[in-house]
Specification:
This protein has helices at 4-27, 35-49, 85-93, 97-102, 122-128, 132-135, 139-147, 151-171, 213-223, 228-240, 257-264, 268-280, 303-315, 320-326; strands at residues 54-55, 68-70, 75-80, 105-110, 136-138, 242-245, 251-255, 284-291, 294-301. By secondary structure, it is of the alpha+beta class. The two termini are 62 Å apart.
């Protein structure tokens, strides 16, 4: 079980980063919250305070004044990133008689840091049984209550934060001038290699009807679209497999998939998933050969060009692994 200190430390760090994000958005005049944000804090408040809040805006019809409500305990929350007195007054003013009867405790939860003082008209306080010191709460107030929770509740909160907090932060992200977000998947994309051969003269003596500068450039275009970790399988097939005739009259590099899985110490299904990427790109095909008079499939390097590139690299002491990882095919030029 995780320790209290570890769990609280993560939650404190997460909330601190969220607060900074919200403050940055507010400076830019961005105050809108999504339903996901409301639902996230609904679950958080339910865990901390033993509530059964539901989202009153489930259909996004925007229930006047309040977002979350627990009719059993007669408590409701407005969830907002706006900390101004005006926002609190607006919330209280639009509450209906049905709402103030159903919910005798109205809370304004600020996903930010509240002001030090709020001046609320006495008539509104009486109408809604509202006390600014008691009923306006923020992220810091929530953290204080989290600090004293029993470990069982902390475990629940930790699971929720691990599961959903990244999505919550994405909800508060600000797009930069180039249309990028901090969490953009584009930031995780591998850089596309761009060092194709110019003339491949080093392989000129291997050129024929099947192998040419054009075919090597086409091979490069195909390989540059493949993830690096998947390209490595091509090198492993060439380095750990055998060269023989499979379905074709020519010899090709191939390996038995189970051997490949055992060499890499991974499940065969994981290897097959990677091989499917290479199959789809037509960089390998299922060659066939006998093992004890029984026909089996082998992951086999497709086409003459890739086999000739491998043979050339081996003959010249060039690492196939380095060649396919770096994708620097200019080493073939002269």
């Amino acid at each position: 079980m995780l320790t209290r200190g570890f769990i609280i430390g993560k939650i404190v760090d997460d909330i601190a980063s969220l607060k900074y994000q919200v403050q940055t958005r507010n400076k830019l005049g961005m105050f809108d919250l999504t339903k996901f944000t409301e639902d996230f804090f609904k679950e958080t408040l339910n865990t901390i305070y033993d509530l059964d809040l539901i989202n009153l805006n489930a259909d996004r019809s925007n229930n006047p004044g309040i977002d979350l409500g627990d009719e059993g305990k007669k408590i409701a929350y407005q969830i907002t990133s706006t900390k101004s007195t005006g926002k609190v007054k607006d919330t209280l003013e639009v509450l209906t008689q049905v709402q103030t009867t159903t919910y005798t405790s109205i809370k304004v939860f600020i996903v930010n840091e509240k002001q030090t003082k709020y001046t609320i008209p006495r008539t509104l306080k009486i109408k809604t049984n509202f006390d600014p010191k008691r009923d306006i709460v923020d992220l810091d107030d929530m953290l204080k209550d989290i600090m004293v929770l029993p470990i069982e509740k902390l475990d629940v909160l930790y699971s929720q934060f691990v599961r959903e907090f990244r999505i919550l932060k994405i909800d508060f992200e600000i797009m930069d001038s180039k249309g990028n977000f901090e969490s953009s998947l584009y930031k995780q994309l591998e850089k596309i290699p761009n060092q194709p051969p110019l003339n491949a003269n080093m392989l000129a003596d291997r050129f024929d009807d099947d192998v040419s500068l054009s075919s090597i450039k086409n091979l490069y275009k195909t390989m540059q679209r493949i993830p690096r970790v998947t390209r490595e399988l091509l090198a492993i097939i060439a380095e750990r497999g055998t060269k023989r005739r499979f379905n074709h009259t020519r010899e090709e590099w191939g390996i038995f998939p189970k051997t490949l899985a055992n060499l890499l110490r991974v499940d065969l299904k994981e290897i097959e998933a990677e091989l499917l990427i290479l199959l789809d790109a037509k960089l390998i095909y299922w060659g066939e050969d006998d093992i004890n008079d029984r026909l089996y499939h082998f992951a086999t390097l497709y086409y003459e060009t890739i086999n000739e590139v491998v043979d050339w690299a081996k003959a010249n002491g060039i690492s196939v692994k380095t060649l396919f990882n770096s994708m620097d095919f200019t080493v073939m030029d002269s």
